[in-house]
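INFO  loader      accepted 1 record
INFO  loader      residues=464
INFO  predictor   begin
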Amino acid sequence: MLPIAPRSRSARIIAFATAAAIALAPTAASAQGLPVIRDTEAEQLLRDYTRPILRAAGLEKQNIQMVIINQASFNAFVADGRRIFVNTGAIMQSETPNQIIGVLAHETGHLAGGHLAKIREQLANAQTQMIIAMLLGAGALVAGARSGGPSSGMSQAGVAAIQAPQEMIRRNLLSYQRQQEENADRAGVKYLNATSQSSRGMYETFKRFTSDSLFASRGADPYLQSHPMPAERVAALEELARSSPYWDKKDDAALQLRHDMVRAKISAFMERPDTVYRRYVSSNSSLPARYARAIVTYRHGDLRSAITQIDALIQEHPNNPYFYELRGQALLEGGRPAEAIAPLRRAVQLSNSAPLIEMLLGQALVASNSNAHTDEAISILRAATSRETEAPLGFSQLAMAYGRKGDYAQADLASAQAAYLRGDSKTARELASRAKTRFAIGTPGWVKADDIVSARPLPGQRNN
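INFO  predictor   done
INFO  writer      dumping tokens
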């Protein structure tokens, strides 16, 4: 696994709940400080969950992306108009697909309602109001000083002129945000009904957090909360959800299995081995349990036993691309890249050429140190990076393949693209500048390199 970038504290979010195998390639989101993980199986599951909801919300053509954050807390949020961020904790704590689908429906409500743009507008208006209030208050303070010092009535009026409007503006902002949350709840239920899905999971998730937050909110001023008070919110949601004709509809068994498989994978890659073995004890012969144990076995050094376990999974489910992906990744990371090529080819085929899996295959081809594989690696990695543009792994492997071929212009360009996506803008500019000297002026490679040289850093990057 590759390192995960630390979490950013600067992003403003609208949160749902406050209080590859997983090939952890950094992405543009990682460059912004979010600990993003990438996995084809998990991302595909979330896309399948959101596709009908986005269609119902009229957002199907907006290319909304699902981004998985390595955080154990239950949270999902939108930070811009094109991505829904979901914590691994939200997936792990959702026992059924319907529970996480309810979360995604709520977040889709924020996107469809344009809540991010509206809250920014409200913040801008509030800032203007606060500045005016401060200027008026400062004027009263000056007048008070001239008429008798800080204890004069005019001076005290100046202090009040600063403090009172600011408090009123703050309450208005919080009230506006609470209204947005309530609107997102209603929109979420609407989308679930439109797609013939139950809103029970959404209600169950909210209800689960009610008891956790009731103690924290006991005695709190309801007008100083950014989210509706828990009991009121759950009561309103329950009334709305129970009126749905799909309240008692259950998740499809095949979808439940996919959900459990992704939870097993996240547990095996992200949790301590002893935690995984307690969660998936040896007597548990279910497919998710065996999947989790196979992953833990390879990750902690017993490659031979892991391959035996993975082969048993493949024999039982020969058309599952992620079992072949796991076999290839285990062999690749176990220092046997040539043996990883065949299962990764099969994984690419079965996954309809998923770009993250193609990158893993490209990595195995490069790591095999066989010149016979160089052209194939370049072809596969170019295809993968054209469709998955925010994964540095693909570009770094492409750079190695071009270097082996002796095409140093393309190698420098690919290395520059990888550095830029990792957040290293200084190295990216240096490599791109060198690439420009190797390309003929005006050629596509020269233009791409020039774009990197003149590009502004991604949010969160250092421009040094």
